[in-house]
Description:
The chain is α+β, with helices and mostly antiparallel strands. It has 13 helices and 37 strands. The protein has a 9-stranded antiparallel beta sheet with strand order 6-7-8-9-19-15-14-11-12. It has an 8-stranded parallel beta barrel with strand order 20-21-22-25-26-27-28-29, surrounded by 4 helices. α11 packs parallel to α12. It is globular, with a radius of gyration of 27 Å. 53% of the residues are buried.
Amino acid sequence: MAVHYEEPTRLFTLETRGSVYQMKVDAFGFLLHLYYGKRTGENMEYLLTYYDRGFSGNPYDVDRDRTYSMDALPQEYPVWGNGDFRSPCLETQMKDGSFGSDLRYQGYEIEEGKYKLPGLPAVYGEKDEAQTLKIYMTDDKSGLKVTLYYGVMPEYDVITRAVELKNQGQEAIWLGKVQSACLDFLQGDYEWISFYGRHAMERTMQRVPVVHGSQVIGSRRGASSHQYNPFMILTAPDTTETNGECYGLSFVYSGSFKAEVAKDQYNQVRVSMGLQEERFCFELKPGQTFFAPEVVLAYSAEGLGALSRQYHKLYRYHLCRGKYKTIPRPVLVNNWEATYFDFTGDKIYEIGKHARELGIEMLVLDDGWFGKRDTDYSGLGDWEVNEKKVGGPLKSLVDRINGLGLKFGLWVEPEMVSEDSDLYRTHPDWAFAIPGRKPIRSRSQLVLDFSRPEVVDHIYRQISLILDNANIEYMKWDMNRSIADVYSATTAAKNQGEVLYRYMLGLYDFLERLHVNYPDLLLEGCCGGGGRFDAGMLYYSPQIWGSDNTDAIDRISIQYGTSFGYPVSSVGSHVSATPNHQNGRITSLQTRGVVAMAGSFGYELDLCKLTEEEKEVIKLQIKDYHKYWDLIHNGDYYRLTDVTKRRDLAAWQFVSEDKKKTLINLVMLETHGNPVTSYIKAAGLAPEKKYREEKSGRTYTGAALMYGGLPVPQAQGEYLSYQFYLVEV
Ligand code: DGJ
């Protein structure tokens, strides 16, 4: 049993392998959070203290007791309006204009298996893997019923949270803010890790102390964004990769979000995560229900590395779905950086011929194959093949590529429309625009209003026609701008504050239909690279293009940041040409391969231009990738260096679950005359086991590799890289 309820204390205890989570219903029906952390075997209520504190009000129920204040007590689901002046999870307004709610406990239910959320992505788990706790709270005045969902997965060491809001009253209730989860900490100094970035430089790790006041990340862009990832970690100040306490919060949602950490007047810390509240306003009519997306909480007492591995495993096996969840994904070549828009069907076929020779398994035709699309000024929305350019129906090109023994994949950007397109000329009101204003253009395109089912249906029909008429086994789903001018011309969402949330429901509906109707299709998410790299998308696409930046050295930092919250298998990663197209850096083909192998592997360069020597390197890389695939995708991932600190080299390692195999990867970041010898210490091995390194034939104990390390070879050149593959003897 992972979920326990105890009378008469009204104590809820959720247990996972390495953590315990406790909350209790107090004498007045308030739900107080007690504790989340290492297992204690104790009712943690004794941690609560009660003092008369100035300017911290008291609920009416407590009569003359001034020591009871919601402003000082830890809350399970804080609301605006009950005397807690910290950042709330829920803000509501009623028809009489009043703000706020007063939630009191009504009851609970425990179910076997993990709950599902209608229309939204969520972690899944069977009866023997998960338990669900639902706690019911109501606000008497408005009739609002709030159900707090907890999904407990003991073996994966995670607890998921989500919220259902139902209007059981007679009048509309307006939701102004709905967060999905919050954690109140009574004590402790903390640091906060978040992942910021920009287009082509996503998920840079940042670690700062939690100070008084509030620190916020989020997105107002309609997508989770390149700028801030919807994932964060709270750590003790001395927490490292291998030691110390830390807590993760990961949002299973791909739209605008807000995540906050705040230290209050009594040095208590509150972290919360949920939908972006700015411009959000959802009208909940009598009888209607609203679901706030899921947040996945994880706790580790053994440092950041262990926390990441908890997320990796969970997301690999209980979030990602589809045929390619656990089987090797085809090594692909994508033509984007090879040709951009300038290709013909014959050129693609030529690339395919070289791909076959090298051992590549799939060819992906990127942007430019449809409508009038030779630049990014036109064509989006017209999902019909440009037969002149492709040299006939798409099927004939697909068949030719299949004839080479390669699978075929296709790029699409279904959420967008170009003003210069037949779709826009026919349905200008399908694109977001504020009446009476000119829309904001970005990459010269507009965004389709996916909050409208008829728009989603139309695009779905077009895309499914393509899928039905040719043997397309992979699809890259791109999205190349942020959403501005949010205004839906339909009556379905009269209240414009609902549009972005409804947009996400429309998007998820589309993706779910693809999942159900094309179960063998491998979907790769993309948003100008990693602008929608989140747990929500992973429910539909087991891999996401990590970044438009394909430079191996920048990718080390991007992949490092990504690895904190997402499995390696989820990161689309390609070897591209040198000098790199994004930053002009020159790196060896070997190094580009080593870095790209820490992901779902592929190539993105003109294979027709390779030298014989390069072809041999690539053939070997693909062989190696197949050999290492299981280790890379299903093994445990260890960050061996902190790329934000260590300047000389970056290293990471994969270890098989049975600890019999390991692959240590390292890339030199600096080069000097008369260099000092660097050493790299392995992790995660069995100390007593002996491992043979494949190239040298030398054997080492796991202990030697972990505590003494390996001397890094010295050779001349920039950005040299090494892979040490060791197998138990
Ligand atoms: C942005 C993507 O991230 C690129 O890989 C490529 O698909 C282009 N869009 C095509 O327009």
